[in-house]
Amino acid sequence: MKALVFVTLKSGVLDPQGKAIHHSAESLGFAGINDIRQGKYFEIFLDPSLDEAAAFAEATRLASEILANPVIEDYRVEIVK
Amino acid sequence: MKALVFVTLKSGVLDPQGKAIHHSAESLGFAGINDIRQGKYFEIFLDPSLDEAAAFAEATRLASEILANPVIEDYRVEIVK
């Protein structure tokens, strides 16, 4: 079983990396892009013996304690079978 | 309209950052985790005047030309309305 964790900056937090990518994209002629924000993405391969609820709980604890900084970041966990 | 781009290392490519996170998680007592791989995640806010096909095409071109290194990375694009 696999858990996907998406970590994004909270909406009020400045994202200079995203701004730099947006600026580069505009310089290279990409049109129609209003904004870009960068986040992090983790694939967590879990022991197949865990059931879905336990896998979700473990991945959520990992996300909140290790992967995300809750002061400035939000996270979202998805379980993929 | 928003496009989500997921960039991951190709499966044969070593991911030292993921390995370090996995090792930390084990030291901190997380059980049942077989492997962790880290990727990148981008939210691209597109002009609402683009239709879904145009938005997908633009985000895919951005992913392949700027966001991912096709030598070692794969990418996946999703459109969210």
Describe this structure in words.
2 copies of one chain form a homodimer. Chain A is an alpha+beta fold and 81 residues long. The first copy, chain A, has one domain: Mth169, Chain: A (2-Layer Sandwich). Chain A is built from 2 helices and 3 strands, in the order E-H-E-H-E. A 3-stranded antiparallel β-sheet of chain A has the order 2-1-3. Chain A is elongated, with a radius of gyration of 16 Å. The mean pLDDT of chain A is 94. Chains A and B meet through strand 1, helix 1, strand 2 and helix 2 of A and strand 1, helix 1, strand 2 and helix 2 of B.
- Overall outline of chain A: elongated
Task: Tell me the name of the CATH homologous superfamily of chain A.
Answer: Phosphoribosylformylglycinamidine synthase subunit PurS
Low-confidence parts of chain A lasting 5 or more residues at pLDDT below 50?
A: none
Mean pLDDT of chain A: 94
Distance, first to last CA of chain A: 5 Å
Approximately how much beta-strand content do the residues of chain A carry?
A: 35-45%
Rounded to an integer, what's the Rg of chain A over CA atoms?
Answer: 16 Å
CATH topology of chain A: Mth169, Chain: A
Number of strands of chain A: 3
What multimeric state do the chains show?
homodimer
Write the H/E string of chain A, N to C. EHEHE
Q: Biggest sheet of chain A: strands, sense, closure?
A: 3 strands, antiparallel
Largest interface: A-B, 36 and 36 residues
Total separate domains of chain A:
1
Record the strand order, biggest sheet of chain A: 2-1-3
